Amino acid sequence: MIVIGGGVIGLTAAWRLAERGASVVVLERGRSGSGTSHVAAGMLAPVAEADPQEEQLLRLGIDGARDYPQFIAELRERAGLDPGYLRCGTLMVARDRDEAESLEREHHVRQRLDLQVSRLRPTQARALEPSLAPTLRGALELPDDHAVDPRTLTSALAEAVRHDGGRVREGAEVQALEIDRDAVQGVRLASGERLGGEAVVVAAGVWSRGLAGIPDEVQVPLRPVKGQILRLVDPSGPGLLTRVLRMRPTYVVPRGDGRYVLGATMEERGYDTTTTAGATFELLRDAMELLPGLSELVLDELSAGLRPGTPDNAPVIGPGLTEGLFWATGHYRHGILLASKTAELIAGAVLGGQSVPDVVSPLRFARELSLSKLEADAG
Ligand code: FAD
Ligand code: GLY
Question: Over the stretch 34-48, which tens digit does the pLDDT of each residue have?
Answer without folding.
Answer: 999 999 999 999 988
